[in-house]
Amino acid sequence: MKAFTLFLISFFVLASLTLDAQTKKEAPKVMKGYLIDKMCGSTMQKKSADQAMASAAKHTKVCATEEGCAESGYGLMMNGKWTAFDDAGNKKAAEYLKTTKAADHLYVAVAGTQTKDNIAVASIKEAKEKK
After folding, report:
1. 82: closest CA among 54, 28, 43, 108?
2. Residue 30, SS3 per DSSP
3. In a 3-state reduction of DSSP, which class is residue 6?
4. Deepest of 36, 43, 88, 104, by most Cβ within 10 A of its Cβ?
5. The whole model's pTM is what?
């Protein structure tokens, strides 16, 4: 009987730990950089990191919202490297671009989770640009 009781206790402890691990999600982190469409960002990142960031700073809202650029999707230019947003992030970026008063220097803080290929975006808001 003691062995069976010990088995049950062990089973429930293990099940509890497994469920807890499955429900924990990585907390979003805040990443800052320039909001850039994929069409322009993929070209910019071919330059040196400093040149890419200088180009990203000058990138305009008008360009980012043009049909071809907007359809290519959005991402974040950080340290000369462009990383794509997920589908939800693309929608959030399009909404941000509709409301921002900035014409260029689209420096933003993106809360989300970065994977190898993209950023799962939770939110996008204006950030103070590093000078």
Report:
1. 43
2. strand
3. helix
4. 36
5. 0.79
Q: Is residue 21 part of a domain?
A: no
Does any domain span residue 88?
yes
Distance from CA of residue 118 to its chain's centroid? 7
Cβ partners under 8 Å of residue 25, min gap 6: none
Q: What is the pLDDT of residues 88-99, one digit of tens each?
A: 999 999 999 999
Domain span at residue 88?
A: 29-126
**Rg of the chain in Å (alpha carbons):** 21
Q: Count Cβ atoms below 10 Å from residue 21 Cβ, excluding itself.
A: 8
When pLDDT is cut at 50, 70 and 90, the band that residue 21 belongs to is: very low
- 3-class state of residue 54 by DSSP: helix
